[in-house]
């Protein structure tokens, strides 16, 4: 990467900034996740390399400005892991993973300059994932329903408010109330121990699979999907569910 960014290096690599390539960091991360979901170890190895390249790219640009280098990145995370695992590298003990998480948050809070833990959740997280992370942090300090029944009641309340907004209001309030419904549903997922982001991803994949069946069947019958009636598509949808 130093060579690529050097005077005799690649014009494209030399032009890049932290801002210009940040989208690739996200893209490569999602490609790693796809490889994990596919249980493809060869692909996972390759995608981890692509992700590592992005980390190296950012570190090299920082080194050129005198901020830090790749060794600082590695040493920093090693020190952090040792500091946050006193039950492994220190004299403390932890018998369960829950005890580890509680201690982790305590240590992290002591390291962080921000007094509000919710501010630690990155704005660029996917929305469902971010909502669940924020709810988890709030729950750790006691701001939570005693059990899932309270979360379910909140979902019903927010649905009624959304329906009311749809009947009486314009876009901004409807959007707000829809967001409240989604946030409340994520809270139910958290109580059930379900990752809301993963659940929606799996449902989306299921939808794609079933709709692809409709498209493939239509093509086999030399019919365009847009020329089919809703009843015809719904019949194929039901067939796809049985596959």
Question: What does this entry show, briefly?
Answer:
By secondary structure, this protein is mainly alpha-helical.
Could you please describe the fold and organization of this structure?
The protein has 243 residues and is mostly helical. The chain has four domains: 2-79, Helix Hairpins; 84-89 and 98-119, no CATH class; 122-194, Orthogonal Bundle (Helix Hairpins); 200-242, no CATH class. The chain has twelve helices and no strands. The protein has helices at residues 2-5, 11-15, 18-37, 41-64, 70-83, 86-89, 97-111, 127-140, 148-168, 171-191, 196-220, 230-242. The longest helix has 25 residues, at 196-220.
Q: What would the keywords be for this entry?
A:
243 residues, mainly alpha, Helix Hairpins, 4 domains, 0% strand
């Amino acid at each position: 990467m130093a060579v690529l960014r050097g005077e005799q290096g690649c014009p494209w690599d030399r032009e890049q900034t932290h801002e210009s390539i940040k989208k690739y960091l996200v893209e490569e991360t999602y490609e790693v996740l796809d490889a994990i979901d596919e249980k493809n170890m060869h692909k996972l190895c390759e995608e981890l390399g692509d992700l590592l390249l992005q980390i190296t790219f950012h570190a090299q640009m920082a080194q050129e400005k005198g901020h830090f280098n790749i060794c600082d990145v590695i040493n920093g995370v090693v020190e952090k892991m040792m500091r946050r695992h006193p039950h492994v590298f220190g004299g403390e003990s932890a018998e369960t993973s829950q005890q580890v998480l509680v201690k982790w948050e305590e240590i992290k809070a002591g390291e962080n300059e921000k007094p509000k833990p919710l501010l630690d959740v990155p704005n660029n997280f996917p929305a469902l994932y971010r909502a669940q992370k924020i709810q988890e942090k709030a729950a750790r300090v006691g701001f939570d329903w005693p059990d899932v029944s309270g979360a379910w009641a909140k979902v019903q309340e927010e649905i009624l408010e959304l329906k009311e907004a749809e009947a009486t209001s314009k876009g901004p309030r409807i959007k707000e109330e829809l967001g409240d419904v989604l946030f409340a549903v994520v809270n139910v997922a958290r109580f059930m121990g379900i990752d809301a982001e993963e659940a929606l991803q799996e449902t989306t994949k299921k939808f794609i699979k079933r709709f692809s069946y409709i498209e493939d069947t239509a093509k086999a019958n030399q019919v365009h999907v847009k020329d089919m009636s809703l009843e015809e598509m719904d019949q194929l949808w039901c067939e796809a569910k049985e596959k």
